[in-house]
Predict the structure.
Amino acid sequence: MSTMTMRVDDVDAEIVRKYAQFEGKTISDFIRDAVFEKIEDQEDLATLRSAIAQDDGTRYSHDQVLAELGL
């Protein structure tokens, strides 16, 4: 397992400590979760941008979708 070091000032460090404690997590778990949430957000944004670029403007009503699904 790798170890990473992050430098923050004392005020920011206290905020991180308190928030991690509030969430019931260790500082390591809290920071790891925050990093991966950020990465997932960026991936979601890339997916959205791709979908927008491919959108041909076709829209379907709720009734059309239900009919297509046989519901």
User: Anything to note?
Assistant: Residues 13 and 59 are 49 Å apart (CA to CA).
